[in-house]
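User: hey, got a sec? need Serine/threonine-protein kinase Sgk2 folded
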Amino acid sequence: MMLGASEHLYTLTICETPRRDPLQRNFFTTIEDCLNQALTTGMVPLRGDIIEDGVMYKSPQEVQRLRCTIEAPYLVENRIIMYRIAVEYHGQTWYVHRRFQDFMVLSDSLKKYFPKEVVPKLPSKTLFNNRSEEFVSKRSKGLQLFLNVLLESELLRNDRHVAVFLQTELAEEKLMEGIESSRKATNSFTSSEEDGQKEVDYLGKTEKHHVKPKDFDFMKIIGHGSYGKVILAKHLETGRHYAVKVLNKKHIMKRNESRHIMQERDILIKVLHHPFLVGLHYSFQTSNKLYFVLDFVNGGELFFHLQQNKRFSEKRSKFYAAEITCALDYLHSQGIIYRDLKPENILLDNTGHIVLTDFGLCKDGIKGSDTTSTFCGTPEYLAPEVIRKEDYDKTVDWWCLGSVLFEMLSGLPAFYSHNSKQLYDNILHQPLTFPQTNMSSSARNILTGLLQKDKAKRLGANGDGAEIKGHPFFHDINWNELEKRRVKPPFVPTVNGKIDLNNIDPEFTREPVPQSVYRSVGSTSVGMENNAFKGFSYAPSSSMRSDVY
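Assistant: Yep! Here you go:
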């Protein structure tokens, strides 16, 4: 959610992606309207927000101010004080339920991006008498003041963390777990439009093998997405640890995304054995959730390490770029355009090698010089032809590689601007300029080639990945050894044990795991799926990757 200077509402539509969860959908528009609004208002989606299939954000008529009112607190399980917050906007009211810890997480998240003096203070913590009527009343008033000051600040209320805090999905999870409320939380800004689904033959083995939520111990939340959470889980029978992506069917169906989810599942199976792509071990479903059981990779996002280091050395950047090139080249050989390369989707494993994750925006079935035209991606990394709504091909991935490499070397994506008009103008029209860093001539040359605005002249247009690998920037890379993971990484993350979470953002790990993820009522095996997700379940006879612990 973004509120402009004239109290306009902006809503963002995004796909499954860590740390980029919008408030809700509200208004729908064409890409032309989206870009016109961006150029007119100077508003730009927050870093990492995704635009897809002609739905992004739009400014409707002037609307009333966003208001939040804390109503009577209540006790859950005789120990947890919950605060019921009424959120009012444009004549609509919905409710969210939050603990004091949730307020603390929001405050800590804001302090990472804004000066501490800008973020309003929370009421003080106490270990004693914290359930007395007087204390609870005083804390409620303090939290109300916190919200009031927060929403008065245009700078703070536009932040994505505030949007996540005020969304209803978390409240719905808690309501599902039996938390009583005098009124059911509602999602006022969700589209109910449905479009027809084609019958598709999906990939995967069809063994009569049951996998269910109770086969796992769900330990810690390690990520968020549009439709659910990513949770560290232990498989009880084998003792192995996985990252389990748990998606809410209802939200997927409301956004007409079931075909994209099925495509992501098919692509995960299709690329099972590549060393630089995240692996799928199982997929299964219950009556209301979908589960992807994936490799657990705990070296942290590249985005996380860039935040820690600001930028990387050329040696380190080259190593990551080389492994990314191998991953993209393999996807292209399988007829897949990745379309969403960015630091948030690049993980480091515990040895320092990269692992590409999140295939929700991939386009499958691309052969040779085939093109596609869907408008999707992340604003800072969009190729010019995508912004112009032209047909595009695999070379969009090489543009994204150039932007990520530029960011690793300099600290920001190429052409970056906080102002949307300037951002898109830079991408479309402005020449590439280099910061005052010790960047080699070969690094500047490969960036110039990758960030060529004319896709026909872009590095990779003639020979795909082979052309990238043959560039002088990579002259000292032994590609055969690299693809076998035999090249020693220049940086090894600090990982103290198989399930160490020090490289995972505490913004996630502090959250409690909702008990609803364990529900196996209605769980289905292969051949028992409902029509919308027919063919989703995947249960091979044995684990296919030996490098998972």
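Quick note: Residues 1-64, 169-208, 523-529, 543-549 have pLDDT under 50 and may be disordered. Let me know if you need anything else on Serine/threonine-protein kinase Sgk2.
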